[in-house]
Amino acid sequence: MSNTNLDLDFDSCPSLAPFLGYMGVAIAIVAANVGAASGTAKAGVGIMQSGIRSPELIWRNLIPVVMAGVNGIYGLITSIILVGAISSPGNGGANTYSLYTGAAHLMAGACCGLSGLGSGVCIGIAGDAAVQACGIYDWECKKPGGRGKKGGGDKLFVSMVLIQVFAGNIALYGLIASILLSQQVYYCGQN
């Protein structure tokens, strides 16, 4: 039997490390805004379809669009935090930004961006169905001999708001996780 010594010493601050950090920035802003855009588009179509029957409900039914737009703001917040944490090379071009920090910032961006993407899709699908249901219900109430009971649309509206808040919380959880991950830093030259 022979003893083999493994040399696990490697460059903890390679030039690749800032690239990982900037990829986290890109993932956070792009994925969160894709989620915001898809949620806005899907809910916006439902609002326009609902507005044909009940134009007075358009302003009230804008909640899904606003909630989807918040996801983009979360991505922007994370990106600003991460860009501020990525250090430039020091004097003489030495990189002090570690691979550990780059990986943490990459995962921070992924947490915020991907949770914002999922939240935006959820907000859009649920918002589209909810605003159309509110519009149809209101339209049925206005018809002579309609099936709806006046005031019942308020129950649908409250349900829609609750669904939107819980769907928006998905992105908020990602933002919180990304802020915690962005604080995990190690700079070369520290002990």
Automatic annotation (TrEMBL):
Q: Which SUPFAM superfamilies match?
A: F1F0 ATP synthase subunit C (SSF81333)
**Keyword Transport (UniProt):** yes
Q: Outline the extent of the V-ATPase proteolipid subunit C-like domain.
A: 23-82, 106-181
Instruction: Please give, as recorded in its UniProt entry, the membrane topology of this protein.
Output: Multi-pass membrane protein
Instruction: Report TM segments.
Output: 20-41, 62-86, 106-135, 156-181
Origin: domain of life: Eukaryota
Cellular component, GO annotation: proton-transporting V-type ATPase, V0 domain; vacuolar membrane
Compartment annotation: Membrane; Vacuole membrane
InterPro entries the UniProt entry points to? ATPase_proteolipid_c-like_dom, ATPase_proteolipid_csu, ATPase_proteolipid_su_C_euk, F/V-ATP_Csub_sf
Its Gene Ontology molecular function terms? proton-transporting ATPase activity, rotational mechanism
One Pfam annotation, family name?
A: ATP-synt_C
Gene3D superfamilies in the record: lithium bound rotor ring of v- atpase (1.20.120.610)
Chief location: membrane
Which residues are in coiled coils?
A: none
UniProtKB keywords: Hydrogen ion transport, Ion transport, Membrane, Transmembrane, Transmembrane helix, Transport, Vacuole
For this chain, the family text in UniProt reads: Belongs to the V-ATPase proteolipid subunit family.
Task: Report what the protein is called.
Answer: V-type proton ATPase proteolipid subunit
